[in-house]
Design goal:
Layout lengths: L15 H13 L12 E5 L2 E4 L4 E4 L2 H4 L8 H11 L13 H13 L6 E6 L2 H16 L3 E5 L8 H6 L17 E4 L19 H12 L6 E6 L15 H12 L2 E5 L23 E4 L10 E6 H4 L15 H16 L2 H22 L3 E7 L2 E6 L10 H14 L1 E2 L1 E3 L5 E4 L7 H19 L2
Parallel strand pairs: 3-13, 5-6, 5-7, 7-8, 8-9
Antiparallel strand pairs: 1-2, 2-3, 4-10, 9-10, 11-12, 12-15, 14-15
Family: Belongs to the class-III pyridoxal-phosphate-dependent aminotransferase family.
Keywords: Aminotransferase, Pyridoxal phosphate, Transferase
InterPro entries: 4NH2But_aminotransferase_bac, Aminotrans_3, Aminotrans_3_PPA_site, Class-III_PLP-dep_AT, PyrdxlP-dep_Trfase, PyrdxlP-dep_Trfase_major, PyrdxlP-dep_Trfase_small
């Protein structure tokens, strides 16, 4: 049984059960699901995963941002067990349950801003994005949606249309949802205006003067949706002026400003929500992933007058706000607050960033290091002058890390960014071992 304090220990190889499961997966699971590493999890605790063959791995991807509070935190597991003994399901709009109301109240209390708030629940990140757009359209009576290059908002039709990475997410799945307008994001390392921040003039904000004349009239735009830190796009952290500038544009044009906190929320960036780093109160917020530490749940939380725009029955669904998931979320928030995991995210940052900068001094191929709290990534290039993406080398680093017991994944439209989403409960010893493994992998791939 894992205690959560174990370190990475590999070398057991693949047993017969793992090999059989790999064969079954190839035979019976749809190819589009894309089975990952040849290791099947048996149990997880804290920041450690053990596979069926007894290998242990330090987890630096955290279910893609789902287990900020760690694998199987005891208060969350206990809350799920207690709820499961009472009932598993009820359709909240017919027979409501207490957990839904309590969680809505709690979220409305902890999101930033003094405006009266309301909440609603669905099951996934894509679903909360779709519902946020529906709410904004109903509130404004408009149809248009502004999204950003390098964004990721999900894989359902509308969410996929908002997403900005063609392969694998959009290729062959058109036609896409109409009335969606893309603008460049504040990707300073690859600024489309070839500017250098600071002192760049914030062309990414000035661009809207032309955009509203050349592409879409703002009077037809219902909402603007943006990740405060772009996740799948490569952990792109905007300049501090950017998000407040966007919010001001929206306020002037009567456009609902939606912050997509699906990946950046729940202490990941050193605050409960990433927008707090920018002193911002969005009109609507979407949240999922670590809200339930592995249980399927997502939410839209926002200003009460906007949230109340849809009529009864226009939003929600059969499993929306499931009692087990809401119980898990209530317990998870207690963990985030009680264990001060936002502070822990900043301490992780204080250790990891100097280590990455040491690697960057040795390897010029580390072109850019981006971070906010424990949402950390570095972008790899073949040549720092040309910034040609080093996608193959990125994949090689991930594979070398896996061989040594570190689970870590890539990001970025060009697939050349290594991203870190370690559980915030990771121990200092685990963090040090993980960074040692990462350093070895980078040294090996770049031959230094």
């Amino acid at each position: 049984m894992l205690t959560g304090k174990e370190l990475a220990k590999v070398g057991q190889g693949q047993g017969d059960k793992t090999k059989t499961l790999m064969e079954w997966g190839a035979k019976y699971c749809a190819r589009g699901v894309n089975t990952g590493k040849p290791a099947f999890i048996e149990e997880g605790k804290g920041a450690v995963i053990k596979d069926l063959d007894g290998n242990t791995y330090i987890d630096f991807f955290g279910g893609i941002g789902v287990v900020n509070a760690g694998h199987c935190p005891e208060p969350v597991v206990d809350a799920i067990k207690k709820q499961a003994e009472k009932f598993l399901h009820t359709f909240h709009t017919i027979i409501p349950h207490e957990n839904y109301i309590k969680l809505a109240k709690k979220l409305c209390e902890i999101v930033p801003g003094d405006s009266p708030k309301k909440a609603m629940f669905v099951n996934s990140g894509a679903e909360c994005v779709e519902n946020a757009v529906k709410i904004a359209r109903r509130y404004t009576g408009r149809a248009g949606v502004i999204a950003f290059e390098s964004a990721f908002h999900g894989r359902t039709l509308l969410a996929m249309s908002l997403t900005s990475k063609v392969r694998p997410y959009k290729f062959g799945f058109g036609p896409f949802a109409p009335e969606i307008y893309k603008v460049p994001s504040a990707y300073c390392y690859r600024c489309p205006w070839n500017s250098s921040y600071p002192g760049c003039g914030m062309h990414c904000l000035e661009h809207f003067h032309t955009f509203f004349k050349a592409e879409v009239d703002p009077e037809t735009v219902a909402c603007m949706i943006i990740e405060p830190v772009q996740g799948e796009g490569g952990f792109i952290v905007p300049p501090p002026e950017y998000l407040p500038g966007l919010k001001q544009i929206c306020a002037e044009k009567g456009i609902v400003f939606i912050a997509d906190e699906v990946q950046s929320g729940f202490c990941r960036t050193g605050k409960m929500f990433a927008v707090e780093n920018f002193g911002l109160e969005p009109d609507l917020m979407t949240m999922a992933k670590s809200i339930g530490v592995g249980m399927p749940l997502s939410a839209v939380v926002g200003k009460a007058d906007i949230m109340d725009a849809p009529d009864g029955g226009q939003i929600g669904g059969t499993f929306s706000g499931n009692a087990l998931s809401c119980a898990a979320a209530l317990a998870a928030i207690e963990v985030y607050e009680g264990e001060k995991l936002a502070d822990r995210a900043n301490k992780i940052n204080a250790y990891v960033i100097p280590r990455l900068k040491e690697m960057q001094q040795k390897h010029a191929q580390i072109g850019d290091i981006r971070h906010l709290g424990a949402m950390i990534a570095f972008e790899l290039v073949k040549d720092p002058r040309t910034k040609e993406p080093a996608k193959d080398e990125t994949n090689q680093i991930l594979e070398e890390c896996f061989k040594r017991g570190l689970l870590i994944i890539s990001a970025g439209v060009m697939g050349n960014t290594v991203r870190m989403l370690m559980p915030l409960v990771i121990t200092d010893e685990q963090l040090a071992q993980a960074m040692n493994i990462l350093g070895e992998a980078v040294d090996l791939v770049f031959k230094k």
